[in-house]
Design a protein that fits this description.
single chain; about 200 residues; tt1808, chain A; six-stranded mixed β-sheet
């Protein structure tokens, strides 16, 4: 019986990692549009999954509740970029310092983000893993995951960078509880979980 020797695997092609500046130029040049729903994650273009009705409902309810708590002048940005060192994610909701005109020339940076929220169903593993590490590494002070799978709001604080970035503190809030809104260590109000998660 004859045996054949299989050729060795071809070397894997190198990926081109985009810088934040290159990504911005792709948008400015019209190569990417808002319809593309792409975000830059550690140099790679990543397509955002379509939004299902529970996700849209939770995002809308949280947006309305935060506006009611913070006022109409609060700079709440929904699915708009945050400018990190090597990434430009499109979080579901960001409360940024200042007013909307402050971001007419650039997107918020981590120091300007008071609260960042991801609404999670199919993206839960990534939001607890890669995205949590990315936000911790960039010192996003307060990160919420609206966890539609388990019906809880996960609040992460005390980011730690380094080789294994993470958050030192996590508190979960379930149905019947209220989530404190605490940017910069000062509580500005609370939101019932039942008014966020459908």
């Amino acid at each position: 019986m004859a045996t054949a020797t299989l050729p060795s695997a071809a070397p894997r092609a190198r990926q081109h990692l985009f810088s934040v500046a290159e990504y911005e130029r792709l948008h400015a040049g019209g190569f990417l549009s808002p319809k593309d729903r792409c975000e830059l994650i550690r140099g790679l273009l990543v397509e955002k999954p379509p939004m299902n009705p529970p996700h849209a409902t939770a995002l809308s309810q949280l947006h309305v509740r935060l506006l009611g708590l913070l006022g109409l002048t609060a700079c709440l940005r929904s699915q708009m970029p945050v400018r990190l060192a090597d990434s430009m994610p499109l979080p579901d909701l960001v409360w940024a310092d200042g007013a909307f005109p402050d971001y007419s020339a650039t997107h918020p940076t981590p120091k300007q983000v008071r609260l960042l929220v991801e609404v999670s169903d199919s993206s839960l593993a990534a939001d607890r893993g890669e995205m949590l590490e990315l936000y911790a590494e960039n010192k996003i002070a307060v990160y919420w995951i609206v966890n539609l799978i388990d019906g809880i709001v996960e609040v992460y604080t005390q980011p730690r960078g380094g080789k294994r970035p993470t958050y030192r503190a996590r508190t979960d809030y379930a149905a019947g509880q209220v989530v404190p809104v605490v940017p910069g260590g000062k509580q500005v109000g609370t939101i019932p979980v039942s008014e966020i998660i459908p």
